[in-house]
Protein 1
Amino acid sequence: MIKLIYTGDITYSSSLKPLSASSSVTYIEGMANGKTIRIVIDTSTKDKKEFLINKFNSLGVKLENIDYVINTHHHYDHIENNELFKNARIITYNNYKDFEEGLSKYGIKIMEVLGHTMDSIAIIYGDYIVSGDAIPVKNNIFKNLPPKVHEDKELATESLNKIKNLRKNIITGHDGLLNIEDYADY
């Protein structure tokens, strides 16, 4: 099961610079060999703390039972609520290879999607990919543009195309879910 807990948001100034941002938050619950694994991908900003607590409670998911938090990259708007998941192991670009084999048993794959930052990863689960800010908003796909904020435009464009070519539903970094049928012609 994959569930978008919070769709994320981003506000731009008139000069198209980000003024505020809170990342999407995604929950995955997988099973293999009778064992359940619980993963949260990105934890958004401090101002979303109560919302997240209430949302997980309404789903019957105890925060202390989360096994892993995966941060798609190091920007504050994706990591500020990591401490809510006190028993979770934190997976980042720097250590994801240590967890790849164990997560693959549950159908979870992690891939590098560099460009927005040089430590960006995306998570693939079934027909979904959680892109982080490799694709922060749906218009990145519709207009075939890399993120406005990027460290390497060429790598960011390559990552966008790599994700797009997977032909999966995309959970964007700040703009909710983009279904494959909505961008199949782009």
Protein 2
Amino acid sequence: MSTQPILVLEDVHKSFGPKQVLKGVNLDVAPGKSLVILGGSGSGKSVMLKNALGLMTPNTGRIIFDGEDVTHDQGKGREAQRARMGMLFQSGALFDSLTVWENVAFRLLNADGVKRRDAKDRAIETLKQVRLGSDVADLTPAEISGGMQKRVGLARAIITKPDLIFFDEPTTGLDPITADAINDLIVEQTKALGAAAVSITHDMASARKIADEIAMLYHGKIIWRGAASEIDNSGNDYVDQFVHGRADGPIQPSL
């Protein structure tokens, strides 16, 4: 497996009018590695993710995917890049009007031209990988629990066997037991694929479980990065306050 990063963010800046959100983000992740990015509300996590996905374009800096500068790619170039990525959205982002299997197979049906019968077979097989039986395939998202919806979202993220998977607050809204089960599936499936994983979260239990490395984004910059095992001894006052959830410290609470 290559040790070269599949994704690199190089001095990425992003502003909206006078508001500077990203102020020189430098980040990379290699195949088979899981990087978790911590940060409070308004730290720039979602904007960073959208720049990495190509949903936004940085004002300055570069996005490099598999050795190629894709910062300003559009059309087929950008679509080819996205075809090698998976995404588990915070809210699940399932389509209410589609069945579970149609949600899982959405890309196969709408971008890859796979026949419906074959797409359904692949969807059911992928649902099994996230511990869901074929009996849920023809249900709608409204007919399954929140934890099951997360599993469906994970199945959709991995069905094309992507090289890079993004996880946006993967355990938000779940009880601790269900969240832990989702964390286990994330680790299991990303390792099975050999994919790189980039997750953004404020859930420390999730971060500890799924991360090889953890980075902290604060005021638009990465202020610390290290092995997940080092997070409790980071030597950084901002990281220490965040990890232990203390109101007192250099980070001011958002009220």
Protein 3
Amino acid sequence: MVDPSPAVEVRDLHFAYEATPVLRGVTFTLFPGELTAITGANGSGKSTLLELVAGVRSPAHGTIAFRGDLSLVLQQPDAPRTLPLTGRETVSIGTWKRGFRISSADRRRAVSRALERVGMSELADRPLATLSGGQRQRIFVAQGIVRRPDVLLLDEPSAGLDAASAERTQHILSEEVARGAAVVCITHDRSESDGADREIRLAEGRVSNPRDISGRR
């Protein structure tokens, strides 16, 4: 049974790059077992918002609270040629978290399962830098889901993927929602946002749809 209490609560969030405001009083609540789409024009603050929720950046004002474990998947189009990591090792990094203990055998099984889910098992031992942009994106999705987080944040996870891989990714996100995770996905794809349980649309740094598509305020 999914816990009905909020997974993430954001209140009156403000952020600026130097003197340029990006987010202005953003407030919303996210719930377990729901897929939330964050939409808006380029430059509306979508990626910055995810980074703030994940703790990568600090707000100028406002509060962010979340319950449980959180994982962030950013767009990763490039990888240095000298980066000495395989796809499998990159996914394994997703199991590293203070307070999260897992045996070596369980870690290997979790990594193998995540790679299988994104369809990258056969290419997992190739250097990350030799993979295509779409293949790397799938590796980073695997890194995000390997620990089975309570909150999963993704910045356009289908970007650069072919149709089959994009469909597979959407199926994975549905599976994560079904097990009770709060999944938040930035998207420019209208079909993806229409299929979400909730939509948070940003415009000029503010939430432009205070009543989301799930009916919750």
